[in-house]
Every structure is written in C-alpha cells, then in structure tokens.
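Quick check before the chapter quiz. The format below is the same one you will see on the exam, so make sure you can read both the input and the output lines.
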Amino acid sequence: MCVAMSMTVTLNLPDSLYQRLVSAANATHRPLEEVLMRAIRAGSPPAWDDVPEEVRADLAALDQWDDAALYQLVRQQWSATNVARYDELLERKADGISGTDEQAELERLRDEHDRWVLRKAHATALLRWRGRMMPPP
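Here is the expected output.
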C-alpha cells in the first residue's frame, strides 16, 4: 500500500507572481493552495511513473542528458528500413498471409517503435520543462 506523504514548504514569491496566483484563485473560485499545487504540478519535470516498467529506466536516464543530446533525440527519425519492413508486415497481416515468425517480428517492431516514441516524447517534455524552444534550433 502506497501512503501519500505531505510536506510543508515555505516559499518567498515575488509580489507580481503572488498577485497573479491570487487573481487566478479568485477567478476560478478555488483556494490559493489548489491553484499553487496545480501550477507546481504543471511546471514540474515530467514523470515516468505512468509508463510501462520496462521503459522507466530509459526515461529516467534521459533526465540526466544535456539539452544538445535531448534535441538530437527529438530530431531523430525512425529508420527507413524499419518503417518499410513494418509497413510490409502490416500489409501481409491484413492480407492474411503472414506466418507466426512475421507476426512476432511485427510485434517486436511495434514494441520498438512504441519505446522510441515514448523516449522522444519524454525528451520533448524535458526540454519544454527546461524552458527550451521547440522545435529544436
């Protein structure tokens, strides 16, 4: 069983920021604490808790990458060879002529692509959280 812990933090905010948050709380008829929590959650680095266990280590490692490496990952394209093979296997499956080896290969390529997309999405979210411009320069 996971027990949620709560911590108290004292934070000095610039008056202009405090006033914006108070105005948002008043406009939405929500307590200031709720508005603050929403702002902190939205501005926090992306988490990898909600992704499959087998991908978490990959995503956690991205947190340590510098911006240049993250931009390089974001700009990458999936290999043309993989795209062509994936499309071929999908067509064969749709035509009902794929064997078990081809179905296994299709599943492997799909898993590989899903992992690649998650890594790119996490890299993009990290760059945005770091205040970097998207698309990459």
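If your answer matched, good. Residues 100-129 form the longest helix (30 residues).
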